[in-house]
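so my prof wants the structure for this chain in the tokens format not the other one, which i didnt know existed until like an hour ago. anyway here's the sequence
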Amino acid sequence: MKLLGRLTSINVRKVMWTAAQLDLDLYREDWGAGFRSPQEAGYLAMNPNGLIPVLVDGDFTLWESNTICRYLATQRYATTLLPTEARARARVEQWMDWQAGELNNSWRVAFMALVRGQPATPEAIAAGVASWNRHMGMLEAQLARTGAHVCGDDFTLADIVLGLSTQRWKNAPIERVELPAVQAWMQRLGSRPGFAEFVDNGMP
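here's what i got, hopefully its the right format
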């Protein structure tokens, strides 16, 4: 299997961190800004969105990073990362979907303005920072309830995708609220294989 996408992408790094948890030798090929363009016809045939990453597994291709993480866990029968019991799996996927939708949308304006240099008014940036902190407060409340990981005692795919998002929040040049449960959780994640390489590597 190989993954198409540059390592500076948070969505590429979540897949690579998943592979590290599975002890899976996933070959990565650079695509995206500064490398081969995902607007090439061959790439668009695999992902019509023209976004990274894309997973290539023989004659099978897959896009959407959270879905790729689910696929890798399923391929390796990693039932701790992605449970097979319906309610436990639904809980993991709930938080993964929240990460991809609600949390990511909350930081988009502020992050793109402050880190990527896209134009935005001070009012829009301030509103974005407030929304980002508010959503991170939801994660804080969940971790305070579990006392361990996002969905309970076990480390799951929800921790992987939200760990990457939380690292972005920690590194962003914004005023952050104090979230002690999130901080303690990130310290626990620091001992996981691949954390230093794919999460705590200084990349935004």
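also thought this was worth mentioning. The longest helix spans residues 86-114.
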